[in-house]
Amino acid sequence: MIYPENLKYSDKHMWVREDGTTGVTDFTQKFLGEILKVKVQPAGTAVEKGRSLGEIEVFKQITDLRAPVSGTIRAVNAKVIREPAIINRDPYGEGWIAVIEMAQPEELSELLTSSEYEKVAAAHSTVNLLN
User: In this structure, what CATH number is given to the domain that contains residue 62?
Assistant: First the structure.
């Protein structure tokens, strides 16, 4: 599995860049399988770290996407909304989900590094992956 070192990770299996771009991890997309649908709160919506910013649907399962940081959604990846399988092909590139303008940029320092997240992913085995 791939965990780029330039990203930060939440224990809810989301990644975030310093610019607030966020998405699900490679582990998440492989664990869940083919992503069928993605719903995200609209731009302008305030989100709180650890709270839902949207949903991801796979075969017979809908799971909350948990915001890795607090702030306001500034952009939603419309391409992923139209073609969710992009996440399966490129979770850290074209498969980004939203951009969050961070209200508290210091929250980044509370997130996991790639090596720390790798340990979390390796130990994770529950079906409710993102909850």
Answer: 2.40.50.100
Predicted confidence at residue 97, as pLDDT, reads 98
Q: From the CB of residue 122, how many other CB atoms can be counted at a distance below 10 Å?
A: 10
Task: Provide the H-helix boundaries in the chain.
Answer: 26-32, 78-82, 86-89, 114-123
pTM summary value = 0.91
Helix, strand, or coil (residue 62): strand
Q: What whole-number distance in Å separates Cα of residue 69 and Cα of residue 52?
A: 11
User: In terms of residue numbers, what domain contains 65?
Assistant: 28-105
Q: What is the total count of domains within the chain? A: 1
Residue 13 belongs to some domain of the structure: no
Model confidence at 125, pLDDT cuts 50, 70, 90, reads low
